[in-house]
Write a structure and sequence with these properties.
By secondary structure, the protein is mainly α. The protein contains two helices and no strands.
Length: 65
């Protein structure tokens, strides 16, 4: 993967879940009071953010080399 595309994809995967989590408080279809739903959405959020951080680190590593 290109170093710039890794950085861009990483930043997108970090920013998008944060924005969705911020605005999803007003979405009527999401049941945040269900324990299973909350666990899944939280796990999915952190999984996507960690993959984004991984892509950013790979992109930075490619910039140095």
């Amino acid at each position: 993967m290109n170093k710039w595309s890794e950085l861009l994809l990483g930043l997108i995967l970090i920013i998008i879940p944060i924005v969705i989590a911020w605005y999803s408080q007003s979405w009527p279809g999401w049941d945040f009071w269900s324990a299973a739903g909350t666990f899944f959405k939280g796990g999915l959020f952190w999984f996507i953010v960690i993959i984004g951080v991984l892509f950013v680190l790979l992109g930075i590593s490619d910039l140095k080399g």
